[in-house]
Amino acid sequence: MFEYMPMNIAGWGLEIVIYFFLIGTAAMTFAVAAGPATFGRVADPFRNFEVIGAIAALVLLIIVVPLLIGDLSQPQRFLNPIIYFRWTSPLSWGSVFLPLFGLSILGFLYGRFTGHHGLQRFSAIVGSLLALSMPLYTGLDLMVNQARELWANPTIPVLFVMLSITSGAALVGLLLLVTGKFSAEAARLVRFILAFSLGVTLFLFLGLVQTMVYGSEELQQAWAAINAEFSLQFWWLGLVVGVLIPLALTIGPMVLPRMTFAKSPAMVTLAGVLGAVGAYTLREVIIYAGQLPQLYY
Amino acid sequence: MTAIGLQAEPSFGVAGRKRWAMVVDLRRCIGCMACVAACKAEFDVPLGVWRTTVRVKNTGTYPNTRRNFMPRLCNHCDNPPCVRNCPTAATYKHDEGYVLQRYERCIGCRTCMIACPYNARFMLPQSRSRVGINNVVDKCTFCDHRVSQGLVPACVQTCIGRSRIFGDINDPNSEVARIVGTQDTVTLKPDRGTRPQVYYIRPDRQSFEQATSAPVSAAARRDAEAFYRHNDGSRYFGGLL
Q: Is the CB of B90 less than 8 angstroms away from the CB of A8?
C-alpha cells in the first residue's frame, strides 16, 4: 500500500510528547499534594507537600499550556475548542478541563493560604478528579483514532494514567528530597504508589506487545517500526530502565527483607526518576510509532 | 449502523436526499495526472500537497509486468472519523454527503489528519501565491462549489479516459448508482467503519491489495524520497523519517 498512500504526515511530534508527559506529571503531583485535604489522615505524610506540590503543578501547567498552544498552526484560535465545543472530541474535553484544573490549583492554594478549608477541600477533590482527566483525555485523544491501530486500544488511556502516576510520584519524591521533607512514612507511601503504577504498567506493556505481535498487518508494521527505530526507547529505556529496575526497587523490600536500602527516601526517589524516564519514552514511542504505519500501509 | 457526532445524518440510501459519490474505474486510468493538474488549478493547491493524487505502482517481473495507477482523494465518508474528532467542528458533514472544512475555525491541531484512515488531509503551507488561506488543514471538497451549480468536479470534468465518474448515488438513474449496483466495485479500508463514498473498479487483485511493499516503481520511489527529504530533520519525529 505504500505506493498507493498519499504521504501526508500529521506530525504529532516532540511538543505533544512533552505536553503529554508534563501534564500527566503535573496532574498526579497535584493529586498527591491534594491528598491530605481529600482523604484526611491516610495521606497525612504528604501534609508538608501541599504547598510545594500545588505550586509545582502550577509551574508545570504554566510551561505546558504555551507549549500546547504553540503546537497549533493557528495558535491565536486556541479558544475555539471551548467556543465550538464538540462532545465527540476528547481534545475539546481536554481544552475545557485544562483551565478548570488550573483554577482548581489556584483555589486550593488560595484556600490553603487564607485558611479557607472548605474551599481548599473542594478544590482538592474537584482538582484531583480533573487531574485524573488529564492523562485520561490525552490517552483518549489517541484511542479514538480508529485509523491508527496502535492507538485504537482501550488500554492506552489506562496506561497513560499509570505513566502519569509514576512520573508524578517521581516529582513528589524529588521535591520532598530536595526540600529535606521526605519522611520515612512519606517514602513508604510513594514506594507503594510506584509499585502499583509500575506493576500495572508492566502488564499493560506486555498486553501492548501481544496486541502488536498477534495483530493485523498494520499492527505488525508498528511492531516492526518500534523494533527498527525505537528499540532503545521501547525496550531499554521504556521497559528495563523505566519499569523493571524501579519495580524491583519498589517491590524488593516487600519480598526481600534484606533490601532495606531500597526503603530510603533517596532510593525511592531514584526508582521514581527511573520510572519517569520510562513514562516519557513509552509515551514517545507510542505517539511516534502509532503514526508511522499509515505511511507504509 | 449509527453515526455519532455528525452535523448531518448520513444520507447514503436515504430516499429524497442526495448522496454524492465517485466511481474510479482503474481499468481506464492511464496515469496522465490531468485530474491532479485540474485540481491544482481549481483550488491553487500549493506545491508539495495534493487534494487528489494518482499513485503509481509496478507489479510483476519482466516480461510479465504491469504499471498500475491509483487515484486517491478524500472518500467523503458517510461516517467520517475526522468530523467526529475535530474539536472545533471546523470539519463538518454536509447534508448531501460532502465532508467540508471551515477554514476560519480550524486551529491546526491536526487531529483530523490523524483520524483519517486515507491520509487524505494535509496542512496548507504558510505562504501561498494567490489564495490567502494558510496554515490550516485542507482536503478535497468533491468540488461542492461546482456541483451546486450543476457541474461535475474538476477532476471528473478533465479525466480524458472517463475513469472518474461522479453523481448522486441515491438517484437510481445516475451512472454511479448503476455502476455501484451492477459492477464489482470496492472501497478502501471498509473495515474501518467509515463507509467511504469513493468506489473503485479494480483491474485485478494484485494491483489493488493492501500489501506492504517498498516503493518499487521509479515514480513511487521519487515520491518517497522527496517525502523523506522534506520531512527529514523537521520538527516532527526528531529526524526519524
A: no
Residue A2 pLDDT level (bands cut at 50, 70, 90): very low
The three cell numbers of residue B40 are 491544482
**Ramachandran category for residue B76: left, alpha or beta (phi over 0 → left; psi -120 to 50 → alpha):** left
Q: How far apart, in whole angstroms, are the C-alpha atoms of residue A252 and residue A262?
A: 7
Distance in Å, alpha carbon of B131 to nearest chain A alpha carbon: 17
Q: Which residues have C-beta within 8 Å of that of residue A50, sequence separation ≥ 6?
A: A33, A34, A36, A37, A108, A112
Distance from CA of A219 to the nearest CA of B (A): 12
Residue type, B117: P
- Higher-scoring residue by pLDDT: A44, B66: A44
CA A183 – CA A181 distance, rounded (Å): 6
Q: How confident is the model at residue A12 (pLDDT cuts 50, 70, 90)?
A: confident
Each residue's pLDDT tens digit, A145-170: 988 999 999 999 999 999 999 999 99
Task: State ipTM.
Answer: 0.91
Contact A40, A177 (CB under 8 A): no
Number of neighbouring beta carbons within 10 Å of residue B239? 10
